Amino acid sequence: MIAPEPTSLNIRLPYVQVEEAIAAMIEQMQPGDQLPTEPTLAKCLGVSRATLREALRTFVERGILVRRQGVGTFVASRIPTLEAGLEVLESLDRMAQRLKLTTEVAHLKTDERWATPAELLGLGLSETQAMEVLVVDRVITVENEPVADLHDVVPLTYLRQTDLEGTFNGSVLELLLNRGDLMLSTSRTEILAEEAEGHHAARLNVKRGAALLKLTARLYTYDDKVVDYSISYFVPGHYKFHVIRKVISK
Q1: End of a domain among 46, 75, 104?
Q2: What is the spatial distance between Cα 115 and Cα 103, in angstroms, rounded to a whole number?
Q3: To bridge 153 with a disulfide, which of 51, 53, 218, 229 should be the other Cys (CB 3.0-4.6 Å)?
Q4: Strand arrangement of the beta sheet that strand 226-234 belongs to
Q5: Is 65:225 a contact under the CB 8 Å cutoff?
């Protein structure tokens, strides 16, 4: 849904009043609603586009609005942003629990089959090797809003479909940790920004072409074996990463 255009004002608004006018408009909108274009909004509020952008930026920084490059500006979800440090590997379910939020698993699909050549490379094996794997596809929702589309490939020696029977909270990591016999060491992760194509756009309820955070990860044991190869897509407005970087003096 696109928001109705605000009533045009005959006087130029001071900066604070611009923020108040935008806040009042957002208050009448729902999460996911799109704001009018910047030229339309600037004209209706009687301000320059530079002033408008500065006012909108404050709402984006506070997580109230989400900008999607080439698409527009949207009202963000009302749920708190899930934030994680890249130096620690933790499931979405545990992060949500800390905020007292409810997570659910949607679009769950599991399959036991032979790994594809690309999956074998992801598991640190040669394309010519053969390995049976468990593939787990699902979407994680927080307070009924989709926040992540997850795809894991795990050798059958570590997990099978029967291990997901009962209550599965969506975390393959926790299933592996609960085995008790795996000495998990590190997760090596590549992070990219990627446009949502049709499949992920539909599952995450975003527009095609919207920016998503793509994480490609390999979970290693202490003897350097890959026990989980995963490709995950996160909605930026719902999920935020940070990293603590050490300063090295000369």
Answers
A1: 75
A2: 29
A3: 229
A4: 103-114, 132-142, 145-155, 226-234, 211-221, 184-195
A5: no
Q: What is the pLDDT of residues 209-229, one digit of tens each?
A: 888 889 999 999 999 999 999
> pTM of the full predicted structure?
0.67
The token duo for 194 is: 């990627």
Tokens of 132: 């049976």
3-state secondary structure at position 68: strand
Place of tokens 């603590």: 244
Max intra-chain CA distance, the chain: 72
Question: What DSSP assignment string belongs to 80-149?
Answer: PPEEEETTS---HHHHHHHTT--EEEEEEEEEEEEPPHHHHHHTT--TT---EEEEEEEEEEETTEEEEE
Do both 69 and 94 map to the same domain?
A: no
- The rounded distance, in Å, linking the Cα atoms of 41 and 55 is 12
4 occurs within a structural domain = no
Q: Which amino acid is at 88?
A: V
**φ/ψ of residue 207, rounded to 5:** -75, 150
pLDDT digits (tens, 9 = 90+) for 142-154: 888 888 999 999 9
Q: Residue 10 domain-assigned?
A: no
Question: Final residue of a domain: which of 57, 75, 93?
Answer: 75
Backbone angles phi, psi at 125, to 5 degrees: -115, 165
Torsion of CA 112, 93, 234, 241, to 10 degrees: -130
Amino acid identity, position 112: E
Give the range of the structural domain holding residue 176, as residue numbers without chain letter.
82-242
What's the structural domain count of the chain?
Answer: 2
